[in-house]
Amino acid sequence: MGERSHGLQSWIDRLNEAELPALAAVVQDLHQMTQQDKSSVQQLADVLLRDATLTSKVLKVANSVYYNPSQETIRTISRAIVLIGFENVRLIGLSVSLIDNLLTRGPREQLPQLLARSFHAAVQARNIAGYLLARSQEEVFIAALLHNLGELAFWGCGGDQADELAVALAQPGVEEEQAVREVLGTSFRQLTLGLVRSWNLGELASLSHAGTAQGDPAVKAVNLGVRISEAALDGWDSPAMTALVGQLAGLIGVSPEEALQQVLASADEAVKVATTFGAGKLCHLIPHTDPEQIRQQREQRQASLLQPNLLVMQQALQELGLLSSKKANINLVLDTLLQGLHQGAGLERVMVAVLADQRSRFAVRSAVGEGTGRWVDEFVLPANQPEQPNLFSYVLRTRETLWMGVPASYSLNDLVTRLMREWLGQGMFFVAPLLAGKREIGVIYADCRHSGRALRHEQFVAFQRFAQATGRCLEAMAQKA
Questions:
Q1: Most buried in the list 275, 412, 422, 470, measured by CB within 10 Å?
Q2: Using one digit for the tens of pLDDT, what is the confidence trace for 383-410?
Q3: What is the 8-class DSSP label of residue 397?
Q4: Range 317-346 burial, b when 16+ CB lie within 10 A, else e
Q5: Is it true that 8-301 and 310-480 share their CATH fold?
């Protein structure tokens, strides 16, 4: 299809009129039925019977061991409703329609990947909902399955524009949201919400995008299921997954170990569900839970972790030595420091926090490492408050370089305030005063929080040397100013 669509309404019209009218009709009809209505059982049967292929596929799924462990043969839709329940038949109809309408459209790899993630999210969400809700678990399944409906529809029906976006997203360092906006004239999230409204897919499907109803247990289940399905792609032991498993444990009242077992069981179930729905080719796209596979993934992950590089470290120290002998630019000094500690000493997160606003608070002047962008924009820590002393102020006052998290510094743990823990997390870190002669500038902070690896003695020695070299640069700059 040659014509271009641009902007939300243009895409909604195109998907509804030209590309997906059959899917829209089935999804809408199936969604608008509730079990309370006596006639709805017959209506459900009628909707599914309108399409012979849909009927035979729904019956095939209904007869699968997953839905029908008693293996009593089901030959009609109404019998399926009696045996496996109205909600299950409605859900099967919806899922099969989605797979049929989208997976048959083209070989683009984004589609099966996203559909696999959607099934995984749906099973995770439904099983989480089992702990939080007495009913409407199937509704949670559907809301999670359709959470990326806009993106699914685009990859299935976007034609040339889908090829264009695929090329744009393959560029290194691309900003995904921006690339999507440039090609579509809207975001995937807006497109999903637009389709959800246009197809009347009910409150839960749109609430999970809105951000307003985060307290609603059904919305929590959908969002957690979706985020788990995304994090699983980085490995079951990725930091994001560990955080989500922790959230799930708190939410359903079990230990993190039990929560992880629940998540892994749901992933296995998602593979079964995808197979049952006739989407067997999606199975290998759902992350494996086999312990051997997990071990291999973990080893690959360890191998890709930041490793110290002595050459980079020595070059950065030499560079700082040279910079102290000429009138250097402060940004160049800090960039060299951060590179030396991050790439050189192998410290995963490094930041320089300076005294700001009449020396009343610490603000982050520069930082490097995954997730530290937030620090530069938002980090705030009060300085020199006698009623609530903190470690950064203490380090500046005493001129000490500290290795926190080892027995020698346990006595100072109280100085790591609640606010600092919220920003920095738990675990070992290094902190050093940053001085220009006698003038207090701020502190240098470093940790290896992403991988959770312990800090090592040689990293501490390097950290001390870099702090001193940077201090000499700042002192030289102050004298020349």
A1: 470
A2: 977 777 899 999 999 999 999 988 888 8
A3: H
A4: bebbeebbeeebeeeebbebbbbbbbbbbb
A5: no
Could you tell me the residue ranges of all domains in the chain?
Answer: 8-301, 310-480
Encoded tokens for 462: 């390097």
Whole-angstrom Cα distance, residue 346 to residue 114? 35
Neighbouring residues of 345: CB distance < 8 A, sequence distance ≥ 6: 308, 313, 446, 459, 462, 463, 466
User: Residue 226: which of 239, 209, 249 has the closest Cα?
Assistant: 209
Taking CB atoms within 8 Å and a gap of at least 24, the contacts of 176-185 are 184/5, 184/6, 184/7, 184/11, 184/154, 185/5, 185/6, 185/7, 185/8, 185/10, 185/11
- Cα–Cα dist 266/285, whole Å: 15
- How big is the CA angle at 361 (ends 418 and 399), to the nearest 5 degrees? 85
- Cα(397)–Cα(185) distance, rounded to whole angstroms? 54
- State the CB neighbour count (10 A cutoff) for residue 77: 22
Q: Pairing relation of β-strands 402-404 and 439-447?
A: unpaired
> Residue 199 CB: number of other CB atoms within 10 A?
24
Query: To 10 degrees, the CA torsion angle through 181, 183, 185, 186?
Result: -50
Q: How far apart are the C-alpha atoms of 444 and 466, rounded to whole Å?
A: 10
Whether 93 and 54 have beta carbons less than 8 Å apart is answered as: yes
φ, ψ at 6 (rounded to 5°): -140, 130
Strand partners for 355: 362
**Cα–Cα separations (whole angstroms), residue 184 to 9, 89, 158, 163, 290:** 11, 35, 9, 12, 39
* Distance separating alpha carbons of residues 66 and 473, to the nearest angstrom: 68
Cα distance between residue 156 and residue 162, in whole Å:
8
pLDDT at 1: 45
Considering only the top CATH level, what class is 8-301?
mainly alpha
- What CA–CA distance (Å, rounded) separates 158 from 375? 38
Which residue type, as a one-letter code, is found at position 207?
Answer: L
For the CA atoms of the chain, what is the radius of gyration? 28
- Residues in the chain where the model's pLDDT stays below 70: 1-2, 34-39, 106-107, 134-136, 202, 204, 210-214, 293-295, 297-304, 480-481
- Phi-psi region at 318: left, alpha or beta (left = phi > 0; alpha = psi -120 to 50): alpha
